User: Fold these one by one.
Assistant:
Number 1:
Amino acid sequence: MSRAKVRWIWVCSAVAVLILAAVALVCWHGAAEPLGNFPISLHGTTNDPIRGLVASFSVTNESRMSIYYCICPVQVKSDGAWPDLRIPRSGGSELASGGADVFSVVAPAAAQEWRVPVVWGYRPTGYRSVTGRVKYNLRLNWDRLRHGRFPTLDNHAQFTLHASYSPTFSK
């Protein structure tokens, strides 16, 4: 084999390794989350004769992607600290880019500080969905193999959850 041919093979191999490393790096880290806020503001209050004080809030998706969001139970400050965030297992909604929605909660009866947490995340689509599934399956199957179980293929995409909070209120 000629010297030029050997050099050509080495150059092509090096380029292929660099391309594979770049693809692996992009797939592992993924694209950055799109910038945008998810503000929660008080829309109004009303005194319901049965439920008591009902507060209406508005949420706005200021990002350029659709998001999923879920209203969490009202948090009441106790001993100067907020309780851990409890995320409901169901009841989420999708909100398009630039969209807004209104929701209502019953204010706690006790005269303490309270707020409403909302958990949200960008809806994984296209590239983000595929890389999320790959990451999820790699972690899931690595754990399964470590415990002597067979690998499986799961179709769940992994995405980051964020929390936003309403303004704090006290009665």
Number 2:
Amino acid sequence: MSVLVPVRRYLAGMVALAVLPAVVPRPIAAQVPAVRDSAGIRIVENAPLGIARAAFALGDKPTIDLSGAENNPDSQFYAQATGYHWAALRLRDGRFLVASSWRPSTEDAKSRSQLMYFDGAGKLLSIVHLPPPFRSPNALCQTPGDTLIIGDTNGRLIGVVDNAGSVVTTIPLNGGSRAESCFGDGTFLAMVGFDLGDHTVEGPPRLHIVSKRTDGSVVHDFGWIAQRAVLSAGASVPSFAARGSQFFDAPSGVPEIRRYNAQGALNEIVRMNDTLLRVTTAQLVRGEGAPPIHSTMPLAEAAPARTWPVYGTAMTDEAGRIWVNQYLRSNDFSPTWTAFGADGVMIGSITVPVMVAGESWRVEAFYSDAVQVSIINGKAHTHRIVLYPLVRVP
């Protein structure tokens, strides 16, 4: 799994709805993508995301359900006494890893960070405590040699950890930095700078992205990457990722995904043929350009959308698919994710609920055969990590 910045829940301050004109979609089968070459760059023109057929669904029963109410309260990721979950990853050997901050229930013990290893059925195998200066690990990826790269924004470091959880080395970073995802050659993406901008599409927040070796040296500087108009609304990760020998970026305010090689050369542009509807100044004043109501960040940290639809987080999976989520309007409660194949051609979509029986759902990762969902119950103080089968729809 590769994923494309933890954010906080925002539920207030939302007002009027943005209303889109009716669109009569043609069958997706009739929307044959146009593929062409432009100065050595492959261009794939796809149909609008809004008409993508449902090609995937969640399985009826999860294969893993970690830290539910039936489990030991002392090992819950979100229990008040023990801390909360920051990042999770299914490892290549079938184990499941959760990195979290840990607050002991005894007052004389100090807070610490930990790695929790589970087997493929969700049974807790071991807990490895990470030594200071680790504070709050919030990003995980695994290199081909099974080395773990752990990003820790608050600790201002990147940890290099072996497959058993032992720390090999740590790489100090400036404030706000973090690791993101791994390339196939053992290097990884890291965010080394953050610019808030002026919270508009014309000047959105930007991240400075580089690739690094495990000794901390820089391989390539990808430069400053503009973030989405609503800063990954409804998700927990930014809109870029590494996969194999390629770097993916979904730039702000543009209905496309750009694919680069590990040296930063642009190889492919995957476009979504959506008609962008401009949000006027009057509509912005009424709140129609605000993030979806289930956005997980305060309005003060979310740049208002200037056009609809809004494209959110982008992720990749082991099969080489790219997943993009989109919001057609500000009251879009059920974000849809659309999958593109390794060739850039649209496959279809899946819709994942954001609220079920009073619990908040958030997609954290796509795998070739599963979807990883974070489920939070604020009243019960539990934070579950659930893995659902990813089912193809005929």
Number 3:
Amino acid sequence: MLDGVTVVTLGGASSNVFGFAVADVTDAEKVLYSTFLNAPELFSDYHWVVCSFYDVKARAKMTAELLVNKLKAKTISILCLETETDRKVMAIIKEEIKALDPEVDFVSEDYTSAGLNDFSSLLTKIRYKNPDAVVSLLVESNYINISKQILEVGGWGDIQFVGNSEAANFKGIDQSPGAKGWYVPAVYLNGQGSPAQIEFGEMWAKKCAEDSAWCKRYSPTGPAPLPNYAPIYNPLLTAIKAVEKAGTDDRGKVAEAALGLEYDSVLGPLKIGLDGKSSISGYFIQWLDGKPVPIELGK
């Protein structure tokens, strides 16, 4: 694993499985570990890990502002993965909500596996509790199932559904009537954002046009990159930028260069803190008529 200059892992839920084992090795050897993973304990327990996705605390604060300030939610249900990392992230979200409004009541909390397919009993329970909003932290397959099964148990009614993961921002969800009105976070929408974000979409489309076999394999939904492609690519680009900044392939110097790194990433302007955390919080979109509509929390 340590034959190269840096170690890069791509992927979301998979990073939660092996990320800490990788960090145990890279940190001991002072090797840069550039990762998609943003588990809070990675940055308190390790030194040479950098995340180029989003900052958990900033995202939690943004979610709380949406729920409390914009949606005026007084009662909230929680639907979250049962992993230790996801529980910790949800705990941070709850803290941010309570900081804004100590009177908010969490009327139900359910923690489930990524492999769960039938959410009907949990959705029925939530409908019975009838909260103002649901805040969730799940994987793509969970969200696809929920968007279909909520209609089978009677629909959302007046309940607002808020995701806290880009996994709620995928093909298969966008056209589902059960996802209409969902609020979900985003860090990349094709054709929008900074120059680097625009260029990423253009390069992806050009590659598809020039290589149909590549496009069929890696971009089966068409020439536009899906919302998760940019976050998965960003750790690799961050590692490259760290090598460029260091001006050497010396592992230790590359690891040091990554801390404090600033550049226009495919997720927009990114600054890696001296603690390895990303400066990115992203923004919320709302699914309306099958299209992602960016929203402003102040409105």
